[in-house]
Amino acid sequence: MNSMLVTLVLLLLLGFAYQTGWSRSSRLAQVEGRLHSKPIYHGALVAIWAIVPALLILGLWALFGTATANTRFRTLTSAVVLASAFGTGAIGLYLARNRISARFRARNEVERIIRYLLIGCSVVAILTTLGIVLSLLGEALRFFTFVSPVDFFFGTVWNPRFSSVGTGSGDFGLLPLLWGTVMIATIAILVALPIGLMTAVYLTQYAKPKTRNIIKPMIEVLAGIPTIVYGFFALVTVGPALAGLGAMFGLDIRATSALTAGIVMGVMIIPFISSLSDDVIRQVPRALRDGSLGLGATESETIRRVILPAALPGIVGAVLLAVSRAIGETMIVVLAAGNSPYLRLNPGEPVSTVTVTIVNQLTGDTDFSSPQSLVAFALGLTLFAMTLVLNIAALFIVRRYREQYE
Amino acid sequence: MSDTSSSLPQQRQHSTIRAGIAKRHARERRFRAYGIAAICAALTAVAILFGMILYKGVPAFWQANVELEIFFDPEIIKVPERPQPQPGQSPAELEKQQLAWERQVTMVNWNRVIKAAIRKAAPDVEIDTKQALSIIETNGRYELRDMFVNDPGLLGQTVTVNLLASANADNWLKGNIDRNLPDAQQQLSAPARALADRLLEEGTIRFAFAWHLFTNVDSRSAPASAGLAGAFMGSLYMMLVVIVLAVPLGVGSAIYLEEFAPKNRFTDFIEVNINNLAAVPSIVFGLLGAAVFINFFHLPLSAPIVGGLVLTLMTLPTIIIATRSALRAVPPSLRQAALGLGASKTQTVFHHVLPVTYPGVLTATIIGVAQALGETAPLLLIGMNAFVAAVPGTPFEQSTALPVQIFLWQGNENRNFFEARTSAAIIVLLALMLALNAIAIYLRTRLERRK
């Protein structure tokens, strides 16, 4: 209610300031002839001068005021803050109004402010990265005060216990989780790479434009499906089907296993690999292809011996991006990987991954002081570092590849 | 002479070439077949996925309802008359009296009323009370109570009421549970199963479209009446936050980088940064939300505003990248014409360049929002997986979201019933995403045609 009232007053201030600037400059225009800037710019500038100081004071108060203000003087301080905010707003309005003259370059000033705003928008992306790095690093360092980094990065046992047992009483070994992550990502790539690449090859080299226009969107539907849906699909359909299939051949495959999660994740990545390879293959110069065909090679020979080798760097980049996506994927593995953090070689057994463990350690309990929840940030940092390296490598390779043919 | 001497090796040469060509053509055909097989595999995956969801989910939209003749028996419902406003009575006092009366109504043994109605519907079935009530969902008694509170004149009357059958009865009647399982593994007792079968045969139990799936909130005690309304509102609030924040920020950032930014180290850094952010796993954004928004700024747990903020940061790179490519596609002649006529740089961009990119920006926004709508993992880390049995009134109240609701339902112990429920929720989510994409395509073609 209170904030609604403040917003209303701010809006009134805004409208009044704009109106003041606008009417004063248009009256001036009638007296002096043409002004440098149109009245709307004068109005906008006055409005900015009135609203920005007020907003600044209110914003600072909202961020830090509640922490410092004594409860006894809360109403008094809030009254003082509000009064000072609107007071400065009024002063800003008055000063900006007095600056209006025929030669005053209001438009240039407004445009400069717009540019600062745009820069501010771009900085949000940097702040996000900074926020990610700082928060992960900060909490991970706190975790490393409980558990030594050597035990974390090279430990082979994952058994964090519960925070109620006491601090530092569990085993926080990263390797079983990393192993599960790598195994699932490998299976996913083994599924997605042949299918995705061959799809891209067929659609770019053989298919008629009409077929291509129908099939490509149908496959790309896979990319738009939420991962929770894949997870459910893996849990309910693929897992039991694989277990049944394994039983037919006398193999012991569990319904929730690395294999289940990996195969479904592979399906999820197919459109990713196929559309990226599609782009890459289309960038191979036509002359290469025509030259090979002209020398009498069949189409498949051209593709295998000329086009794919030429497109290889791009395809490698695509695969790296796909791996990074597979490593960071969460919901499929939460539902279908079985959550069993042991070092096992058999893909038919349940495993656990870095992402699953982050979810397990941080859901329900948001007490950020025990190593049991802080470990999630150390895991997140590991994940972030891994995907960062993969992404940068992929972007680098793809960019080099593009330059080669441009 | 030379002719005959050379013809034999030549023929041999020809035949080896021919054999080689045949082999090469066979290889060509095989390669092509691999391509077709790959496409078929991908399309099969699409088909199985959608087939499974539809097969499992569509039946869940129809649920068993029991149509009972409820007799509001004065013997059982022994409550005084509803307090009426007396002259000289303050409204607060009246409200207090009415609340006390409602509490009394709640204390009535409504289960007995329901049981009497079941007995009447199937007089010759031998069944004890607990078993008979097990085919009606537990929220049935609250429905009767609400009816009575709204209209106390029902006392002594007989009304036909549609009550939801319980989740277990619904399972049994739909055949979701194996009918040949021994009693020990069945969720309903043998007499209750016989009763349900008989009521279905007589038409007392009917399958009706489950509107409550859209109007009710999640429920643990009465799973058959659980609905998506709360999750839907939560998702809606988050999408509003995403649209309000991510679009201006993303478009502004794209404009700066594409139109104003000088080419230097700093802008290069921003660019690499944005490309990287686009590929950061979503769960890392969840960790950021937990550490910064929850732990540092102490925003409320499980609130859509926090979820919206996290998803905003996540969709920002998508919108920036797409808007930049839309801006890059605007022909330079447009900018040159505007600048040549004396427009300032800012005027050129905002009056002439940006309007051309609206279709692209719109598509980017909708793709980003659709992506955010389906995201689950980061929301789990900011506590949106809490059980919330209310529709959130503001973005600051506790709530859940559609994909998180799917996650919660798939984990429910009543597997048989909730597998179908989860699929139904997935259908709703996919339908929403499909609608978003359809809107995007429609608007884009419309806007592009107008140019």
UniProtKB/TrEMBL annotation, chain A:
GO terms for molecular function: phosphate transmembrane transporter activity. One of its GO terms (biological process) is phosphate ion transport. CDD domains: TM_PBP2. Pfam families: BPD_transp_1, DUF3708. GO terms for cellular component: plasma membrane. Keywords: Cell inner membrane, Cell membrane, Membrane, Phosphate transport, Transmembrane, Transmembrane helix, Transport. It is found in: Cell inner membrane; Cell membrane. InterPro entries: MetI-like, MetI-like_sf, Phosphate_PstC, PstC_N. It is a multi-pass membrane protein. The chain crosses the membrane at residues 41-64, 76-96, 116-134, 178-203, 224-249, 255-276, 306-327, 374-398. SUPFAM superfamilies: MetI-like. It comes from the Bacteria. Its main location: membrane. Residues 178-394 form the ABC transmembrane type-1 domain. Belongs to the binding-protein-dependent transport system permease family. CysTW subfamily. Part of the binding-protein-dependent transport system for phosphate; probably responsible for the translocation of the substrate across the membrane. PANTHER family: PHOSPHATE TRANSPORT SYSTEM PERMEASE, PHOSPHATE TRANSPORT SYSTEM PERMEASE PROTEIN. This is Phosphate transport system permease protein. It comes from Nitratireductor aestuarii.
Automatic annotation (TrEMBL), chain B:
Keywords: Cell membrane, Membrane, Transmembrane, Transmembrane helix, Transport. It is a multi-pass membrane protein. It holds the Pfam family BPD_transp_1. GO terms for molecular function: phosphate transmembrane transporter activity. It is found in: Cell inner membrane; Cell membrane. Residues 1-20 are annotated as: Disordered. Residues 232-440 form the ABC transmembrane type-1 domain. Residues 1-16 have a biased composition (Polar residues). GO terms for biological process: phosphate ion transmembrane transport. One of its GO terms (cellular component) is plasma membrane. The keyword Cell membrane applies. The chain crosses the membrane at residues 33-55, 236-257, 277-299, 305-327, 348-373, 424-443. Belongs to the binding-protein-dependent transport system permease family. CysTW subfamily. This is Phosphate transport system permease protein PstA. It comes from Nitratireductor aestuarii.
